[in-house]
């Protein structure tokens, strides 16, 4: 029995270790390439760690490229999108969780349907609609588009968090003298904070990575987001992989930080609601 | 404080009717207890009074003012939930003061009222804790505290004690009774617990299938149940029922039990000769070890000592029934025993289940 | 509400004042309106426009294009061998990606379900790939598969899986596997997170009861865990299947559909038509077919689910 236990214990740890290695190794490689000096990039291409490291790529990216602008743009776009989506999805998710009303199933069906669109199909029409409004080549336009794309999933996510909160609480608040909206704001929202954090993080990472629409709606460097900027390393004649990877590492930082902060809430919140339905 | 008038209230969820026309007048300061089996619509009625559930038809008046269309916040009533529904992110003090803060009560007034309620409920040392860090009984008290700080027109309770253990329930029951004597507040109280209903109520409302079966003081319902449902529901252990046929011949009558035995009755009841009927008798009225011409032999199935008394399970013919006695002689009883069903304690119900 | 009262035996119907009825009835719509307006204007309207493109001749560089051409695109599509290959590849890509993501995600969720020392940090680390922008993940994996700068071909050679360290992304037979592996790496966390959440919602006493009844770990898994997870698995697999068959980033970044269109899936084929050939009309026609296929698939799943539910 104890022999079996030890074996199970070892197998468990070994499997966990394998997963961690599998998850981190590509990221490790990204980091490795970003600190490899150009001269060694190909000659020591498959060494686990270069014989000499340097931060020249990082320095170049930060000092001599437009990357800080891309970075700032991406922060503005992803941050605003995350905040707006979370606010609107909270409202919509609350309605889906708490009210029965005519058309509810149509709304759910519409939101599910949007998950099936090949987004490529929307590029040209959206461009056509936004350009007379002056919303192409602008961060506002990008925020608008990302917000719409992310709302359906965020709404389902928030709904599942609300489903996990007993209805009694807002009824008690309403009897205590609150309107339904005040009860929502003062009682339910504070209790959904983990869910809000999870949704914020989820939308932030999604917007942070989006490439297609950013590429299509933005033409100048001024309003470009960082995925587009990263591609600009590729499209030039000499593809500078070292610099690109350095930029990639830098770009990973906020997304990863955000994600590390919220992943706990994501599981917690989903436990509360989503899985029951 | 206020009176509550409910007239011809109906409720349907979708096409499913739940309440079928409830009429009830609750006087100012009265303590009314709603009892009935699970699913009979007690919570629904309570929630409609609170304004949490829309009224399908009928009218609710609080203090003579129609409130059908008022939001819960404008009805000025307090409610204690079975789950307590304490706000998990607020301290006990914040939980209790929430309603006052919503009403923009001055801070000094809030502080004094909350402190008063806390003292009354023995919550003083807990005021800064979160609900998570409280025991079930303490949570229950906070829920009560949250209700009383407002001095509302009426209190609604939906099975407030059902999550507590028996001992604590007894204690809280007494506290609620004391509180009611202090505040004299109009209260509507839903419970499954016989003893809570009997001890707390000025009047009990027995409900079944969305219909009020009987309204009256606890002893009225106990001594004089209006129908089979109330007779069987009120009292524990419940009333015994024997089905049979009522026979009358001139000035005397008798009751033929389905098992075969015949019970002579000295006086007549308001039943036609030969009609099917049900006879009921409470277990404590069954006389064990009886002698005399009207004694019948019953088989002893089981003897259950409760400490306070003894419940004896018997079979008469093929009908099972119970007797309750304080006499410990019957503890070791076996085989057969002579029983008597004293006529003054008998209840007769006609075929439709109405008391006659 | 009122009609029900009427059905209940003609009692007097009690109507609240108009203002209150309006306020009550409009509340849910007010809550959902901002989200709905955005979805309709930024997604649904463009979708309808996009669908209309499928019946028009829309070429970005041709100023004379734009006329209605009826079903011409669809006729061309039915003759398009590349499209059929892309369709087969889509099945292959979606099927393997979902299957592997699901299996490894489930195993990971099971591994993380029981508390152990350092679980929080392990959980954070193994979920990290999800935060990596998809095309960065693609670039990085393309790098890893490259024998000049990546270790993977050399490892596979050392293990005897390859006769020489070469790039699978340029092998017509294997090219699709590169993006599939990257996709599995990237998508495991999604399954793991949702399944872990579902696992943690299973009441613990069920397991205790089962082990008291003498069920071993394997029996417990099949008699408790799996049935409890089934609804979550169904909905997650459905959503993921739809999503992955639409997900072209990795393929575009890693192989660009090549070599010789061998790793093209429908979604990346649409992308190629739209942005390489600049033929938006044809691209929209393909996209419309893909949308129809996905809707049909989802309906089938929903109907199947209803049928299974109604059976027991
Ligand atoms: N939101 C709802 N939708 C549909 N039916 C409902 C709803 N709420 C309650 N019901 C039904 O209405 C009936 C009465 O419910 P109610 O909660 O009032 O019962 P109750 O008397 O309080 O029961 P219990 O003693 O178990 O609390 C039940 O049959 C219940 O199934
Ligand atoms: Mg109830």
Word description of this protein:
- The complex is a heterotrimer of chains A (277), B (356) and C (312).
- With 277 residues, chain A is mainly alpha-helical.
- Chain A has helices at 2-34, 40-43, 56-64, 67-98, 104-114, 120-130, 139-163, 167-175, 180-191, 193-209, 212-217, 226-235, 241-272.
- Chain A starts with a helix and ends in a 5-residue tail after the last helix.
- Mean pLDDT of chain A is 84; it is low at 273-277.
- Chain B folds into two domains: 4-233, P-loop containing nucleotide triphosphate hydrolases (Rossmann fold), CATH 3.40.50; 240-349, OB fold (Dihydrolipoamide Acetyltransferase, E2P), CATH 2.40.50.
- Helix content of chain B is 24%, strand content 34%.
- Chain B has a six-stranded mixed sheet, with helices on both faces. A five-stranded antiparallel sheet of chain B has the order 13-12-11-14-20. In chain B, strands 15-19-16-17-18 form a five-stranded antiparallel sheet, with no helix packed on it.
- In chain B, strand 1 and strand 2 form a beta hairpin.
- Chain C has 312 residues and is mainly α.
- Chain C has two domains: 2-53, no CATH class; 73-311, Orthogonal Bundle (MetI-like fold), CATH 1.10.3720.10.
- Chain C has helices at residues 2-7, 18-53, 72-79, 81-113, 119-127, 134-145, 152-158, 177-200, 204-212, 217-245, 249-254, 266-275, 280-311.
- At the A-C interface, helix 1, helix 4, helix 5, helix 6 and helix 7 of A face helix 2, helix 4, helix 5, helix 6 and helix 8 of C.
- The structure holds adenosine-5'-triphosphate (ATP) and magnesium ion.
- Magnesium ion is lined by residues 42-43, 158 of chain B.
Quaternary status: heterotrimer
CATH topology of the largest domain in chain C: MetI-like fold
- Estimated structural class of chain A: mainly alpha
Flag low-confidence runs of chain C: 1-12
Tell me the span between the first and last alpha carbons of chain A. Answer: 39 Å
Instruction: Output mean pLDDT of chain A.
Output: 84
The helical percent of chain A reads over 70%
List keywords for this structure.
heterotrimer; A: 277 residues; mainly alpha; 0% strand; globular; disordered C terminus; C: 312 residues; MetI-like fold; disordered N terminus; binds adenosine-5'-triphosphate
